[in-house]
Amino acid sequence: MDTLTSRYFWGRGYTNDGMGKAARFIGAQFLAFGLKPVNGKSYLQEFGYDVNTFPGRMEVTVNGAVLEPGRDFIVSPESRGIKATGTLVRKDSLNFSDPANRILVTLEDKLTWSVAQEAADYTVIKIDKKSIQGPPVTVSVNIGNEVVRNFRAANIAAVVRGTAVPDSFIVFTGHYDHLGGMGAKTWFPGANDNASGISMLLSLAKFYAAHPQRYSVLFICFAGEEAGILGSKHFTEKPLVPLNNIRFLVNMDITGTGEEGITVVNATVYPEEFNLIRQLNGQGRYLPKVVSRGKAANSDHYFFTEKGVPAFFIYTMGGIKAYHDVFDISKTLPLNKYNDLFRLLTQFASLLQK
Protein backbone atom coordinates (compact mmCIF):
# COMPACT_ATOMS: atom_id res chain seq x y z
CA MET A 1 0.00 0.00 0.00
CA ASP A 2 2.70 2.47 0.97
CA THR A 3 4.71 1.64 -2.14
CA LEU A 4 1.88 1.84 -4.67
CA THR A 5 0.60 5.14 -3.27
CA SER A 6 4.01 6.81 -3.05
CA ARG A 7 5.03 9.90 -5.01
CA TYR A 8 7.28 7.77 -7.22
CA PHE A 9 4.26 6.08 -8.83
CA TRP A 10 2.52 9.47 -9.28
CA GLY A 11 -1.00 8.17 -8.94
CA ARG A 12 -0.36 5.23 -11.31
CA GLY A 13 -1.59 7.32 -14.20
CA TYR A 14 -0.62 9.08 -17.37
CA THR A 15 2.22 11.45 -16.50
CA ASN A 16 5.68 10.81 -15.06
CA ASP A 17 5.38 7.20 -16.31
CA GLY A 18 3.21 6.44 -13.28
CA MET A 19 1.28 3.56 -14.80
CA GLY A 20 4.39 2.09 -16.42
CA LYS A 21 6.28 2.15 -13.12
CA ALA A 22 3.40 0.42 -11.37
CA ALA A 23 3.18 -2.27 -14.08
CA ARG A 24 6.88 -3.04 -13.79
CA PHE A 25 6.65 -3.18 -9.99
CA ILE A 26 3.74 -5.64 -10.06
CA GLY A 27 5.48 -7.77 -12.68
CA ALA A 28 8.56 -7.90 -10.47
CA GLN A 29 6.41 -9.05 -7.54
CA PHE A 30 4.93 -11.88 -9.62
CA LEU A 31 8.43 -12.92 -10.66
CA ALA A 32 9.69 -12.86 -7.06
CA PHE A 33 6.77 -15.03 -5.94
CA GLY A 34 7.49 -17.55 -8.68
CA LEU A 35 4.35 -17.05 -10.81
CA LYS A 36 4.55 -17.79 -14.53
CA PRO A 37 3.55 -15.34 -17.28
CA VAL A 38 0.37 -16.18 -19.16
CA ASN A 39 1.38 -14.28 -22.26
CA GLY A 40 4.48 -16.17 -23.45
CA LYS A 41 7.57 -14.80 -21.72
CA SER A 42 5.99 -11.52 -20.62
CA TYR A 43 3.55 -10.68 -17.85
CA LEU A 44 2.29 -7.77 -19.97
CA GLN A 45 -0.65 -7.64 -22.35
CA GLU A 46 -0.19 -4.32 -24.09
CA PHE A 47 -2.91 -2.13 -25.62
CA GLY A 48 -3.54 1.56 -26.23
CA TYR A 49 -6.14 4.30 -25.97
CA ASP A 50 -6.36 8.09 -26.11
CA VAL A 51 -6.32 10.13 -22.92
CA ASN A 52 -6.42 13.81 -21.95
CA THR A 53 -3.54 14.59 -19.57
CA PHE A 54 -2.38 17.54 -17.48
CA PRO A 55 1.42 17.25 -17.24
CA GLY A 56 2.47 20.78 -16.35
CA ARG A 57 0.84 24.13 -15.60
CA MET A 58 -1.99 24.01 -13.06
CA GLU A 59 -2.59 27.51 -11.67
CA VAL A 60 -5.93 29.02 -10.66
CA THR A 61 -6.59 32.33 -8.91
CA VAL A 62 -10.12 33.35 -7.88
CA ASN A 63 -10.96 36.79 -6.42
CA GLY A 64 -7.21 37.38 -6.16
CA ALA A 65 -6.61 34.28 -3.99
CA VAL A 66 -4.27 31.56 -5.26
CA LEU A 67 -5.90 28.14 -4.98
CA GLU A 68 -4.12 24.84 -4.30
CA PRO A 69 -4.61 22.08 -6.88
CA GLY A 70 -6.38 19.00 -5.53
CA ARG A 71 -7.36 20.55 -2.23
CA ASP A 72 -9.00 23.83 -3.28
CA PHE A 73 -9.85 23.00 -6.89
CA ILE A 74 -9.71 20.41 -9.62
CA VAL A 75 -9.96 20.86 -13.35
CA SER A 76 -12.62 18.74 -15.03
CA PRO A 77 -10.81 15.91 -16.87
CA GLU A 78 -12.18 16.80 -20.32
CA SER A 79 -10.98 20.41 -20.03
CA ARG A 80 -8.71 22.07 -22.55
CA GLY A 81 -5.59 23.90 -21.47
CA ILE A 82 -5.82 27.68 -21.35
CA LYS A 83 -4.07 30.81 -20.07
CA ALA A 84 -6.57 33.60 -19.47
CA THR A 85 -7.97 36.16 -17.04
CA GLY A 86 -11.63 37.09 -16.99
CA THR A 87 -14.72 38.23 -15.15
CA LEU A 88 -17.29 35.66 -14.10
CA VAL A 89 -21.01 35.91 -14.80
CA ARG A 90 -23.30 34.29 -12.25
CA LYS A 91 -25.52 31.60 -13.78
CA ASP A 92 -26.97 30.35 -10.49
CA SER A 93 -25.79 29.86 -6.90
CA LEU A 94 -23.21 27.22 -7.88
CA ASN A 95 -22.20 27.98 -11.46
CA PHE A 96 -20.32 30.95 -12.86
CA SER A 97 -19.00 31.47 -16.39
CA ASP A 98 -16.45 33.52 -18.29
CA PRO A 99 -18.05 33.36 -21.76
CA ALA A 100 -15.19 35.14 -23.54
CA ASN A 101 -12.67 32.49 -22.50
CA ARG A 102 -15.13 29.55 -22.36
CA ILE A 103 -14.41 28.91 -18.67
CA LEU A 104 -16.98 27.51 -16.27
CA VAL A 105 -16.46 27.71 -12.50
CA THR A 106 -18.57 25.47 -10.26
CA LEU A 107 -18.75 25.35 -6.47
CA GLU A 108 -18.65 21.85 -4.98
CA ASP A 109 -19.10 20.25 -1.56
CA LYS A 110 -16.52 17.58 -2.45
CA LEU A 111 -13.89 17.41 -5.17
CA THR A 112 -13.65 14.14 -7.09
CA TRP A 113 -11.54 13.73 -10.20
CA SER A 114 -11.69 11.33 -13.13
CA VAL A 115 -10.13 10.56 -16.53
CA ALA A 116 -11.27 11.66 -19.99
CA GLN A 117 -10.13 10.35 -23.35
CA GLU A 118 -10.63 13.60 -25.26
CA ALA A 119 -10.37 17.34 -24.63
CA ALA A 120 -13.41 19.56 -25.04
CA ASP A 121 -13.44 23.15 -26.31
CA TYR A 122 -14.00 24.57 -22.83
CA THR A 123 -12.42 24.50 -19.35
CA VAL A 124 -14.25 23.62 -16.13
CA ILE A 125 -12.79 24.57 -12.76
CA LYS A 126 -14.44 22.87 -9.78
CA ILE A 127 -13.81 24.70 -6.51
CA ASP A 128 -14.33 23.53 -2.95
CA LYS A 129 -16.89 25.91 -1.46
CA LYS A 130 -14.84 26.25 1.71
CA SER A 131 -11.75 27.51 -0.12
CA ILE A 132 -13.07 30.95 -1.15
CA GLN A 133 -14.83 33.86 0.52
CA GLY A 134 -18.03 34.92 -1.18
CA PRO A 135 -19.05 34.18 -4.76
CA PRO A 136 -16.33 33.96 -7.43
CA VAL A 137 -16.10 37.23 -9.40
CA THR A 138 -12.73 37.15 -11.15
CA VAL A 139 -10.72 34.18 -12.39
CA SER A 140 -7.21 33.74 -13.70
CA VAL A 141 -6.09 30.36 -15.02
CA ASN A 142 -2.91 28.93 -16.47
CA ILE A 143 -3.52 25.27 -17.27
CA GLY A 144 -1.64 23.01 -19.64
CA ASN A 145 -3.14 19.87 -21.17
CA GLU A 146 -1.97 17.28 -23.69
CA VAL A 147 -4.13 14.73 -25.45
CA VAL A 148 -1.99 11.61 -25.76
CA ARG A 149 -2.99 9.48 -28.73
CA ASN A 150 -2.72 5.72 -28.30
CA PHE A 151 -1.29 5.91 -24.79
CA ARG A 152 0.54 2.63 -24.21
CA ALA A 153 -0.83 0.68 -21.28
CA ALA A 154 -0.70 -2.97 -20.25
CA ASN A 155 -2.63 -5.55 -18.29
CA ILE A 156 -0.41 -7.76 -16.13
CA ALA A 157 -1.27 -11.46 -16.02
CA ALA A 158 0.38 -14.33 -14.15
CA VAL A 159 -0.63 -17.86 -13.25
CA VAL A 160 -0.03 -20.63 -10.74
CA ARG A 161 -0.65 -23.87 -12.66
CA GLY A 162 -3.12 -26.32 -11.21
CA THR A 163 -2.03 -29.72 -9.92
CA ALA A 164 -5.06 -31.71 -11.17
CA VAL A 165 -7.11 -29.63 -13.63
CA PRO A 166 -4.67 -27.04 -15.02
CA ASP A 167 -6.95 -26.03 -17.90
CA SER A 168 -9.62 -24.74 -15.50
CA PHE A 169 -9.13 -21.39 -13.78
CA ILE A 170 -10.01 -19.51 -10.64
CA VAL A 171 -9.29 -15.85 -11.44
CA PHE A 172 -8.52 -12.92 -9.15
CA THR A 173 -8.51 -9.46 -10.71
CA GLY A 174 -8.16 -5.81 -9.80
CA HIS A 175 -7.18 -2.58 -11.56
CA TYR A 176 -3.81 -1.09 -10.71
CA ASP A 177 -4.26 2.22 -12.51
CA HIS A 178 -5.61 5.33 -10.82
CA LEU A 179 -6.03 8.96 -11.83
CA GLY A 180 -2.37 9.97 -12.02
CA GLY A 181 -1.33 13.59 -11.67
CA MET A 182 -3.04 16.94 -12.19
CA GLY A 183 -0.23 19.32 -12.99
CA ALA A 184 3.41 19.09 -11.97
CA LYS A 185 2.90 19.07 -8.19
CA THR A 186 -0.34 17.19 -7.46
CA TRP A 187 -1.02 13.47 -7.69
CA PHE A 188 -3.89 11.25 -6.56
CA PRO A 189 -2.52 8.35 -4.45
CA GLY A 190 -5.48 5.98 -4.91
CA ALA A 191 -5.00 3.95 -1.72
CA ASN A 192 -8.47 2.43 -1.41
CA ASP A 193 -9.06 2.77 -5.15
CA ASN A 194 -7.34 0.51 -5.92
CA ALA A 195 -3.96 -0.04 -4.27
CA SER A 196 -6.00 -1.96 -1.70
CA GLY A 197 -7.32 -4.43 -4.26
CA ILE A 198 -3.90 -4.92 -5.83
CA SER A 199 -2.35 -5.46 -2.39
CA MET A 200 -4.93 -8.18 -1.73
CA LEU A 201 -4.29 -9.69 -5.15
CA LEU A 202 -0.54 -9.80 -4.49
CA SER A 203 -1.12 -11.38 -1.08
CA LEU A 204 -3.21 -14.07 -2.77
CA ALA A 205 -0.59 -14.55 -5.49
CA LYS A 206 2.14 -15.09 -2.90
CA PHE A 207 -0.06 -17.55 -1.01
CA TYR A 208 -1.05 -19.62 -4.04
CA ALA A 209 2.50 -19.70 -5.39
CA ALA A 210 3.40 -21.55 -2.17
CA HIS A 211 0.15 -23.58 -2.13
CA PRO A 212 -0.83 -24.66 -5.69
CA GLN A 213 -4.47 -25.67 -6.11
CA ARG A 214 -6.28 -28.32 -8.13
CA TYR A 215 -7.28 -25.65 -10.65
CA SER A 216 -4.92 -23.06 -12.07
CA VAL A 217 -5.16 -19.71 -10.31
CA LEU A 218 -4.90 -16.73 -12.64
CA PHE A 219 -4.13 -13.17 -11.55
CA ILE A 220 -4.88 -10.18 -13.78
CA CYS A 221 -4.08 -6.57 -12.91
CA PHE A 222 -5.92 -4.27 -15.30
CA ALA A 223 -4.93 -0.89 -16.69
CA GLY A 224 -7.39 1.69 -17.96
CA GLU A 225 -10.21 1.05 -15.48
CA GLU A 226 -10.56 4.71 -14.58
CA ALA A 227 -10.80 5.63 -18.26
CA GLY A 228 -13.77 3.31 -18.81
CA ILE A 229 -12.83 -0.27 -17.74
CA LEU A 230 -10.73 -0.48 -20.90
CA GLY A 231 -8.15 -3.03 -19.76
CA SER A 232 -10.70 -5.69 -18.86
CA LYS A 233 -12.60 -4.97 -22.09
CA HIS A 234 -9.39 -5.57 -24.04
CA PHE A 235 -8.70 -8.82 -22.17
CA THR A 236 -12.16 -10.21 -22.89
CA GLU A 237 -11.78 -9.32 -26.55
CA LYS A 238 -8.31 -10.88 -26.75
CA PRO A 239 -8.26 -13.39 -23.87
CA LEU A 240 -5.00 -15.04 -22.84
CA VAL A 241 -6.92 -18.11 -21.63
CA PRO A 242 -10.22 -19.49 -22.97
CA LEU A 243 -12.99 -17.59 -21.21
CA ASN A 244 -15.19 -20.70 -20.99
CA ASN A 245 -12.43 -22.37 -18.95
CA ILE A 246 -12.88 -19.87 -16.11
CA ARG A 247 -14.74 -21.53 -13.23
CA PHE A 248 -15.14 -18.23 -11.38
CA LEU A 249 -13.66 -14.72 -11.31
CA VAL A 250 -13.41 -12.46 -8.25
CA ASN A 251 -12.70 -8.81 -8.95
CA MET A 252 -11.41 -6.71 -6.02
CA ASP A 253 -11.82 -2.95 -6.22
CA ILE A 254 -11.84 -0.81 -3.04
CA THR A 255 -11.05 -3.37 -0.33
CA GLY A 256 -9.32 -1.23 2.28
CA THR A 257 -12.01 -1.06 4.97
CA GLY A 258 -14.75 -3.55 5.92
CA GLU A 259 -16.09 -2.65 9.36
CA GLU A 260 -19.54 -2.54 7.74
CA GLY A 261 -18.92 -5.68 5.69
CA ILE A 262 -18.65 -6.25 1.95
CA THR A 263 -20.94 -5.86 -1.03
CA VAL A 264 -21.00 -8.53 -3.72
CA VAL A 265 -21.97 -7.27 -7.17
CA ASN A 266 -23.55 -9.99 -9.36
CA ALA A 267 -24.87 -11.76 -6.24
CA THR A 268 -28.31 -12.02 -7.81
CA VAL A 269 -26.84 -13.31 -11.07
CA TYR A 270 -24.99 -16.17 -9.34
CA PRO A 271 -27.11 -16.97 -6.28
CA GLU A 272 -25.54 -20.38 -5.63
CA GLU A 273 -22.03 -18.94 -5.33
CA PHE A 274 -23.34 -15.99 -3.33
CA ASN A 275 -25.03 -18.30 -0.85
CA LEU A 276 -21.74 -20.18 -0.57
CA ILE A 277 -19.70 -17.08 0.24
CA ARG A 278 -22.35 -15.88 2.72
CA GLN A 279 -22.37 -19.29 4.40
CA LEU A 280 -18.58 -19.30 4.69
CA ASN A 281 -18.68 -15.84 6.20
CA GLY A 282 -21.23 -16.93 8.76
CA GLN A 283 -19.15 -19.94 9.75
CA GLY A 284 -15.92 -17.97 10.04
CA ARG A 285 -17.44 -14.76 11.38
CA TYR A 286 -15.14 -12.78 9.15
CA LEU A 287 -17.20 -9.72 8.18
CA PRO A 288 -20.23 -8.08 9.85
CA LYS A 289 -22.36 -8.71 6.77
CA VAL A 290 -22.25 -9.75 3.13
CA VAL A 291 -24.60 -7.59 1.09
CA SER A 292 -26.20 -8.74 -2.15
CA ARG A 293 -26.17 -6.45 -5.18
CA GLY A 294 -27.30 -7.10 -8.74
CA LYS A 295 -25.54 -6.70 -12.04
CA ALA A 296 -23.65 -3.42 -12.52
CA ALA A 297 -21.16 -2.07 -15.05
CA ASN A 298 -19.05 -0.46 -12.34
CA SER A 299 -15.73 -2.34 -12.41
CA ASP A 300 -13.60 -4.86 -14.29
CA HIS A 301 -15.87 -7.85 -13.74
CA TYR A 302 -18.46 -6.40 -16.11
CA PHE A 303 -17.16 -7.42 -19.54
CA PHE A 304 -16.43 -10.92 -18.25
CA THR A 305 -20.05 -11.21 -17.12
CA GLU A 306 -21.17 -10.01 -20.55
CA LYS A 307 -19.11 -12.83 -22.09
CA GLY A 308 -20.76 -15.42 -19.86
CA VAL A 309 -17.93 -15.74 -17.33
CA PRO A 310 -19.29 -16.20 -13.77
CA ALA A 311 -17.88 -13.33 -11.73
CA PHE A 312 -18.27 -11.30 -8.55
CA PHE A 313 -17.09 -7.79 -7.86
CA ILE A 314 -16.37 -7.41 -4.14
CA TYR A 315 -15.84 -4.12 -2.32
CA THR A 316 -15.64 -3.27 1.37
CA MET A 317 -17.92 -0.87 3.22
CA GLY A 318 -17.40 1.60 6.05
CA GLY A 319 -14.45 3.64 7.21
CA ILE A 320 -12.97 6.57 5.35
CA LYS A 321 -14.94 8.25 2.57
CA ALA A 322 -11.98 9.45 0.49
CA TYR A 323 -12.59 8.60 -3.16
CA HIS A 324 -11.02 9.98 -6.34
CA ASP A 325 -9.38 12.75 -4.37
CA VAL A 326 -5.98 13.62 -2.93
CA PHE A 327 -7.03 12.37 0.51
CA ASP A 328 -7.21 8.68 -0.47
CA ILE A 329 -3.86 7.93 1.15
CA SER A 330 -2.29 4.83 2.65
CA LYS A 331 -1.78 6.01 6.23
CA THR A 332 -5.49 6.68 6.83
CA LEU A 333 -6.73 3.43 5.26
CA PRO A 334 -7.42 1.01 8.13
CA LEU A 335 -7.18 -2.40 6.33
CA ASN A 336 -8.97 -3.62 9.46
CA LYS A 337 -10.71 -6.52 7.66
CA TYR A 338 -7.87 -7.33 5.26
CA ASN A 339 -6.93 -10.69 6.84
CA ASP A 340 -10.56 -11.71 7.29
CA LEU A 341 -11.35 -10.98 3.64
CA PHE A 342 -8.24 -12.92 2.61
CA ARG A 343 -9.43 -15.98 4.55
CA LEU A 344 -12.93 -15.72 3.11
CA LEU A 345 -11.63 -15.50 -0.46
CA THR A 346 -9.25 -18.44 -0.13
CA GLN A 347 -11.94 -20.65 1.40
CA PHE A 348 -14.40 -19.63 -1.32
CA ALA A 349 -11.87 -20.44 -4.05
CA SER A 350 -11.11 -23.78 -2.46
CA LEU A 351 -14.75 -24.90 -2.44
CA LEU A 352 -15.26 -23.81 -6.06
CA GLN A 353 -12.75 -26.46 -7.13
CA LYS A 354 -14.68 -29.42 -5.67
TrEMBL record:
Name of a matching Pfam family: Peptidase_M28
Domain Peptidase M28: 155-347
Coiled coil: none
BP terms from Gene Ontology: proteolysis
Molecular functions (GO terms): metalloexopeptidase activity
SUPFAM superfamilies referenced in this protein's UniProt entry, alphabetically: Zn-dependent exopeptidases (SSF53187)
Protein's name in the database: M28 family peptidase
Taxonomic lineage from the root: Bacteria, Pseudomonadati, Bacteroidota, Sphingobacteriia, Sphingobacteriales
